[in-house]
Amino acid sequence: MSTLLVQLRSDLKVFVRNPAALFFTAILPVIFLCLFVSIFGNERDETMGNVRVATLQVPAFIALAVVSAAFVGLAMGLVSLREDGVLKRIRGTPAPSWIVFGGRIGTAIVSATIVTAILVAIGAAGFGVEVPTSTLPGFFVTLALGAFAFSALGIAYTRAIGSEDAAPAMTNAVVLPLYFISGVFVPVSRLPDGLRHVADVLPVKPFVDALTVAFDPRTTGAGFAAGDLAILAAWGVVGLLVAMRSFGWTPRRQAG
Amino acid sequence: MTADAAIEVDGLHKAYGSFEAVRGVSLRVERGEIFAFLGPNGAGKTTTVEILEGFRKRSAGEVRVLGIDPEHGDRDWRARIGIVLQEGKAQPELTVRETLELWSAYYPRSRPVAETIELVGLAEKADERVARLSGGQRRRLDVGLALVGNPELVFLDEPTTGFDPVARRAAWEVIGGLRDLGATVFLTTHYLDEAQELADRVAIIKGGLIVAEGAPQELAGPGAQETEIAFVPPPGVPLGELPAGPAAVLGHDGRARLRTSAPTRLLAELCGWAAAAGIELERLEVRRPSLEDIYLDIVGEPPAGTGAEAQAPPAGAASSRRRRRRR
């Protein structure tokens, strides 16, 4: 356990000292929120039950922050460690392999939690976002499940990435289209039916939807969107199984 | 197989498809010994080392490292071994001290971090980020990472490749110092002077087989032991008329070369003859064969990586480093 803490502390330092990771995970979602509200206004939308635009946009960008920290962060970070021979080297020590994932998943959780707090704080202070109270259990469970699922998928996805140079393009090629069809940038109501049905069974839209339900002031109860959470959990399990079966520790460019 | 050797290998085979990289290697490394493993590229060196380290599975043969089969080495076994990979990086964002602190947390019986930093001579760079270290300093950190677990056995795979001469001397001191710590060292290297300087025993692998094994001074068969005397033959004296002894050979540098197992007598004859005839033997030199000479005799070619090209990293490594910096 203490080894995990040392690993986590060290991975957090690496994260904070890496400008690209810090920008995409921590700063970009905040910029997006401010830009969005500036561009599209922050009216109380009658058709949306008299809720401010920002109130529905905050959970969308929280989702983006989690996907970025967990999926993109782990996929790119682990590929870079693998290709640099760091993972192979750790394999040569008595450290258990889960410590590598534990440290990075912990980093994703810590960074995503901080960004979530910043987004909620800016939303509440600047854009009149109503912060939920009774649905907080659902909100936190959804966040935790999302962090798990997208971390597992990120670890699994490293199998498909052959080199460090390919990693940014390969991860963005997956997440950017998903953001667009999952209601992060564009309301899902604008999507054609076919695309929406596809998005329904992919992991990002259920995550956005579940977070939105948990964040929406009109939601009654504890804020659990059971159907969405089930799809998200299923993706997490798939990711975990693929990761456990196929994760590679040695540089791909190196034979064997 | 007896229990107290650090490494025992018997009849090791490794095939990749139809290609047999290792074709029956047997060797034994005693505890506390510095053992150098030499051979040209593609001879099966890295394959053998990675089997010993537990990174690769063998096709056939018996292997015991610290009494354990590396294929079934558990965490306790790993804790007793330190590894410097041929190319393994440390995370550029962490400092030397932070990297070693993380690594020491991996091991149950770590050497204190400050002591390890001192041991590899990085005290002045302890709080520098890895990204800002020179190549030689990074390699010293690599060695530090292999030592921080306080291992009984250390694998060093080309630990000084790319070093300048001063850095290599410094690294040799660190490696030689491991002997005093009681550790066993398994060293692969391209530099024959490195093996000669450090190793108690040397094995040379070629084409997947061990072709020579022994102390650097007594390697190989007859001839390798002979001392060479070289000088510019006096003008007007045919090679055949030089004093008795083994036939002289004219070297590519224009000097006559005599090989002998009785250098004192031959030298006395030669000098007596020259002095009597009033001849000065230009560029007279007496030298014992170096490990490099022996190696070239055995392998028939210089090991890849000696000479000028060894000073620069391979082209691929350089370009990938450039790429990384650009990102």
Pick out its properties:
heterodimer, A: 256 residues, mainly alpha, 2 strands, B: alpha/beta, 2 domains, six-stranded mixed beta sheet, four-stranded antiparallel beta sheet, 13 strands
Brief digest:
The complex is a heterodimer of chains A (256) and B (327). By secondary structure, chain A is an all-alpha fold.
Give the uncertain stretches of chain B in residue-range form. Answer: 303-327
Number of helices of chain B: 11
CATH first level of the largest domain in chain B: Alpha Beta
Radius of gyration of chain B: 23 Å
Count of β-strands of chain A = 2
Number of domains of chain B: 2
Distance N to C terminus of chain A: 32 Å
Percent helix of chain A: over 70%
Oligomer: heterodimer
The gross shape of chain A turns out to be globular
Helix-and-strand structural type of chain A = mainly alpha
Amino- and carboxy-terminal Cα gap of chain B: 52 Å
Largest interface between protein chains, with number of residues from each side: A-B, 29 and 34 residues
Mean pLDDT of chain B: 83
CATH topology of the largest domain in chain B: Rossmann fold
Per DSSP, the total helix count of chain A is 10
CATH superfamily of the largest domain in chain B: P-loop containing nucleotide triphosphate hydrolases
Overall structural class of chain B, as computed from helix and strand content, comes to: alpha/beta
Taking the sheet with the most strands of chain A, its summary is: 2 strands, antiparallel
Note down, in words, how this protein is organized:
The complex is a heterodimer of chains A (256) and B (327). Chain A is mainly alpha-helical and 256 residues long. Chain A has one domain. Chain A contains 10 helices and 2 strands; from the N terminus they run H-H-E-E-H-H-H-H-H-H-H-H. Chain A has helices spanning 2-16, 19-40, 53-83, 86-91, 98-127, 136-157, 167-181, 193-201, 204-215, 226-246, and strands at residues 44-45, 51-52. Chain A has a two-stranded antiparallel ribbon with strand order 1-2. Chain A is globular and about 60 Å long. The model of chain A has no long low-confidence stretch (mean pLDDT 91). Chain B is of the alpha/beta class. Chain B folds into 2 domains: 7-218, P-loop containing nucleotide triphosphate hydrolases (Rossmann fold, 3-Layer(aba) Sandwich), CATH 3.40.50; 227-288. Chain B has 11 helices and 13 strands. Chain B has helices at 45-52, 75-79, 96-106, 113-119, 135-147, 165-180, 192-198, 263-276, 291-299, 308-311, 315-326, and strands at residues 7-16, 19-29, 34-38, 60-65, 81-84, 153-157, 184-188, 201-206, 209-214, 227-232, 249-250, 256-260, 282-287. A 6-stranded mixed β-sheet of chain B has the order 5-6-7-3-8-9, with helices on both faces. Chain B has a 4-stranded antiparallel β-sheet with strand order 11-12-10-13. In chain B, helix 3 (96-106) crosses helix 4 (113-119). Mean pLDDT of chain B is 83; it is low at 303-327. At the A-B interface, helix 1 and helix 4 of A face helix 2 and helix 3 of B.
